[in-house]
Amino acid sequence: MADIYDFFLAINLRALPDAEAAELRWHLGLGPQPAELAIPIDFSEVITGDDGEPTTVQTPEPQLAQRGPAWKIGGALFAALEPRENGGWALTARQELHPDYYDHVEPLLEWLAARADYDYMAPDGTTKSGGAGNYVGHERWYEDNTIDRVLVIDDFKLLRR
Q1: Organism's domain of life (predicted)?
Q2: Are the beta carbons of 53 and 46 closer than 8 angstroms?
Q3: Which helix (H) or strand (E) holds 106?
Q4: Could you tell me the CA-to-CA distances from 126 to 8, 122, 157 in Å, in that order?
């Protein structure tokens, strides 16, 4: 038995500054790691130094970059980022995620939700979903035939329902 989730995300994003787009490409396995990372993910890890003392180091790694045949969920793992006609981006990813990695993935998802772009955006910048949220993906425990949680964005926040 494994604690693996089938994670699917399909979200439209507003236009991003070049540095943000480059970092997002890295997180999706589509480009090199930028010299500076701005998406607020805590990559700190405590290791034991040569002197036997604990030391905190940064160990950044892309969060949605898995590719190839899935290990537990069947099908393929991928991530794609394509430019949209309006200057924004279309992002779609299917990944196998373990709950231990959600501490790293969650900040990226929150960052993405804050940059969501939808045709149903109100003039004041809020989404016009009426509180129901707008579907952007789902999570499913690998042995289940049904979706555990639907991912929605409401007022630029990612919610699980």
Answers
A1: Bacteria
A2: no
A3: helix 102-114
A4: 24, 5, 10
How far out from the chain centre does Cα 52 lie?
36
End-to-end CA distance of the chain: 25
State both tokens at 129. 């979903």
Please identify which residue in the block is written with the tokens 């991928």. Answer: 78
pTM: 0.89
Burial tier of 32 (Cβ tally within 10 Å: 0-12, 13-18, 19+) = exposed
Provide the residue count of the chain: 161
pLDDT digits 0-9 by tens, 75-104: 999 999 999 998 899 999 999 999 998 999
Residue type, 91: L
